[in-house]
Amino acid sequence: MQFKISSRRTLSIITLLGFAIFLGVFSHSTLKGPAQSNSAMLIENIAAIPGLEQVNFSLPVRLKIPSIGVDALVEYVGFTPDGAMDTPKERANVAWFNFGPRPGENGSAVIAGHYGWKNGKASAFDNLYKLRKGDILYIEDNKGEIISFVVRDFQSFDPKADASDVFGSPDGKSHLNLITCGGAWDKTQKSYSKRLVVFTDKE
Fold first, then answer.
1. What is the SS3 assignment for 198?
2. Which residue, 14, 37, 109, 181, has fewest beta-carbon neighbours within 10 Å?
3. What CATH number did the domain enclosing 112 receive?
4. Rg (CA), the chain
5. What residue numbers bound the domain in which 147 lies?
6. Closest to 155 (Cα-Cα) out of 126, 123, 179, 186
7. What pTM was computed for the model?
C-alpha cells in the first residue's frame, strides 16, 4: 500500500522509518524490547495519521538483472522482532520491504538479498557488486507487467553509518534500491564488514 500525504509529512515519516530500519539492517545491533516496541509504535503511528489516502498497487513477484544473471522470486518482509528489516528465507530469493513503496511507486522501494555461499548454496546477490552505472534491471508484478530501472549509483556503507537515504527520497520520483552484504567476513560478529547498496531509477 502507499500513503499519499504532504511532502513535508512524507519526508518526516520516511526519515523515522529509515532510521528504524537502519538500526537493524545496517548496524546489526542486538536490539531488545524497547527497539521492538518503538518499531511497532512507529508503524501504528504512521497508519493512524489523519488524512492518509491508501492506494493499491501491483505487487512485485520477480526481480531480473540480466547483466549478472539474476532471476529471483520476490518475498515480502517487514520487521524482525528486534526491529531490523527482515531478509529472504531462501538464499536464491530476494525480499521486498513491504512497509515502504512498491517498485514503481514514487519514493524508494527497497529489496534485499543474501550474499555468499551457505550449505553449498549460492545467494541471489552474490554478483551484485558487478553491476555498473547504466545497467538495466526489471521487476515483474503480479499482473504480468514489467517495470524497468536503470542503475544510477553505488554506495558501500559501514554497518553503523547513517543509511536513511536508502529508504527515503524527497524528489517525487520512483527508485528501487538493492541491499546486500560486502567486505570481509567477521567470524566474531558472524557478519560482513560492509553493506552494499545499488541505487536505481525508474526508466
1. strand
2. 37
3. 2.40.260.10
4. 16
5. 2-202
6. 179
7. 0.73
